[in-house]
Specification:
Number of strands: 5
Radius of gyration: 13 Å
CATH class: Alpha Beta
Structural class: alpha+beta
CATH topology: YaeB-like fold
Helix content: 25-40%
Distance between the termini: 31 Å
Strand order of the largest sheet: 1-5-4-3-2
Length: 90
């Protein structure tokens, strides 16, 4: 059984506000989380020093970052932002 990709309300708005070409690229990479063999190697890194000790992961897609955590049956996307925004919200 494959996992689902779930967007937070904020991540959904952020995805919708991206330029169309970037939005399509982000969608393609997010779907490759489900089947990494199709998407090849993804640039991911576990985030350290997160408030509350959450196991968040950063996914780099060009100049954009996707922060998510992996659940038993899903990938929960928390934020999608340009690299210049930074991680102060964590």
């Amino acid at each position: 059984m494959s996992k689902a990709i779930l967007l937070s309300k904020i991540a959904g708005k952020q995805l919708g506000s991206l330029p169309e070409d970037i939005r399509n690229k982000v969608r393609k990479v997010l779907y490759s989380l489900i089947d990494p063999e199709k998407g090849g190697m993804l640039d991911t890194k576990k985030l350290k020093g997160v408030r509350g000790g959450a196991d968040l992961v950063r996914l780099m897609i060009g100049n954009y970052r996707v922060v998510y955590f992996e659940d038993v049956d899903s990938f929960r996307i928390i934020q999608i932002f340009h690299r210049g925004k930074g991680y102060k919200w964590l």
